[in-house]
Amino acid sequence: EENREEHLEGLKTALTKFHEGFDPMVWKNFAERLHYVRGDFEQVSDYVKLAEYLKRFDPAESCTNKIFYMATAPNYFPKIIENLESSQVFDLLGDCWKRIIIEKPFGSDLESAKKLNQLVDSKFSEEEVYRIDHYLAKETVQNILAFRFTNGLFEKVWNKDFIDHIQITVAEDFGVENRGGYYDKAGNLRDFIQNHLLQLLALSIMQAPEDLSAEKVRDARLASLQSLKTYHDDEVEKNVVLGQYEGYQSEPKVDPNSKTDTFSALRVFSNLDNFKNVPFYLRSGKNLPTKAAYLNIVFKKSENFLLPDGSNLPNILTFHIQPKQSIEISVFVKEPGQEPKLKKVDLEFDYNKNFKTEIADAYEKLILDLIDGLQTFFPRSDEVETSWEFVEPILKKLDYLAIHVYEKGTWGPKESDELLKTDQREWLNNQT
Ligand code: BG6
Which one of 69, 211, 307, 386 is most buried, by most CB atoms within 10 A? Predict the structure, then answer.
């Protein structure tokens, strides 16, 4: 059984591995403040033990602020909340606050998400609840809105008259690793599409919020999510491609006959007037050729110019979310010389070149926001439910949908390429 020392050792190892510039003195100071109480999620008596332990931090007639961070397997969330409540840890005296963080996935479908929201709502006010989607806190993701709304040049063309389509890719070049137990029940649709990809899409098409308060920004994101057309039963197969990488079924803790999706590609439309008939193509998956996330706004082609080979290419605005952190626009320029030749070049803004400060990790930003009580980058209950509503028709058909096996290190099954080919378009690959 792990004890406090071993737990701290584990934290230290992780910190030295993932955080550049580890400072042993800072760590020593910090570690002294860390306490450790071991318990079983299901055992009420262990929560009572925790409640007793926490009392030592609450001076008489007063109390300390408390954050409860649930980073456990999602099926334990309800039990933990109930047990915490019955142990009375939530009963605060005096002038302090409690907040709860809930890691994703928030529920496993619409019904369970609603149930979890109801439970959480019955114990907490919405101001106390922080649902995590760490993609919202990535610096590059936060720049999508800043860039779109403050640059008139782009704001004016952000609509169906100028945009041909939008592509969003979030790829990973590794498999499920040691998370087979969780992943096999989740799959890519639940692990990535329902949250990260839909939130990226919401930011790409959302209307300017009335102001920058958490409520208004969340209202605006919600409106984007609500605008997404949910598939009718007979539309799912035409618009959704699911895949599973070769060898997935022999991963640890994975069912040897598993039909879980490790890849998905979707064609999505919105009911917003501004984006009427503009397709959004989303794809993400494990064991793809690279770990990279990017968003491409593909503009309509110029009608006047052809490239030397007679082709006509569009301007593309790319938000590189990771590992590259930049915003690029491909444009065409005349090559030097007598011949009227055109060449495609990129205009680029690169975080590393322009800003010398270290870019904080998404989780660092979220935890600071949480302490400050800033909810802007935490999805509200209605956002989470609306995202599930969108995914629901696909989940309902999961048992019948084909899961195409793809070779590790490729861009998923060929059906994903065909999804775009039928629209005379293609995925923009290798944008790292
Ligand atoms: C998590 C998923 O939300 O995001 C994981 O559960 C995934 O499966 C991870 O690996 C990716 O996060 P990032 O920030 O490394 O792209």
Answer: 386
